[in-house]
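Bench notes, afternoon.
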Amino acid sequence: MKVVLLSPSKSSHTHKWALFYKQQGIDVTVVTFKDHYSEENAKEVHTVVLPKLLPGKLSYLFAVSHLRKLLKDLKPDILHAHFVSSYGLVGALTQFHPLYVSVWGTDIYQFPLKSNVNRRIVEYTLGKADVICSTSHIMAKETSKYTDKEIEVTPFGVDISLFSPKKKEEGTILKIGIAKGLNDVYGFRDLFQAFVTLRSSFQDLELMIVGDGPMREEYQDLCRSLGIANAVRFIGRVPNHLVPNYLREMDVVVMPSLEESFGVTAVEAMACGVPVVVSDADGLKEVVKNRETGLIVSKGNPDMLAEAVAELLNDEGLRDIMGQNGVKHVRDHYDWQENAGQMLKLYRASIANSGQTINNTQ
């Protein structure tokens, strides 16, 4: 089987899919724009860069022509474009089939609401897709506003052999944390305000920030102005396979996102046996079982956030129970091998329907 992933090369999600396909013996090529290229990831997966000669979406006109020639040479069985408003549009314009389009979040929650042109782009792209995929049921519901087609829910699970529990060393200080890109949409400002409140009751409490982004300097300045800089560790971006090491250091993982299409970090934390406190953003409510694997609070409410985190910090037994429940919940619903296997079944069905054949061992 040959698959072309039309997606940002530097995304850990793209790379995770590409490596899975490669491990299954599938001939996979990642096609990406120059500004989304990752030299490190390209060392592990064959990657081709599309030209981006003009600003914004005007560059897609040149990219489509280039991609058509590339597809003619590669002759893939499946073209799978990720992010409906950009790579999805480029894939749709090639007229290649079978075409898969995966929605990611902002491309379906925000992009089509900005203008009628944007809405038409989404409707056109979904109209050209043979299969539409969403990582969550709630995002599939949002996507259905722009298409009458069936939407396949393919959760973005975790590698439970990598994200697994490990008992924390006794006597270590309490730590809470988050592993996300540094962006206001993930509720960092609420987290910092909640941490100020928590420090009044837990003087030695530490906050770990795993991730990076354009807001880093501003967030560091904010922590200094709030008087918590000495207790906040900005770890920076780390490779996905090292994320479990940091999650297991935390007593509680906190995700106060204002918007979330699928709570992959919450799933990763639960897989590691760490209870979570999350906002009631749609994607988080879908993956977290309130008062079983974690606590769900109203988004945009730092006081409620602090109260929920404090409840867990004050009760080690409750943390242990929720941690154990979280591990089972992930193994039952978000095992990466099973989730990714669903996508392969869809691929095979599409290839069979198009009259092509594949090796049964794939």
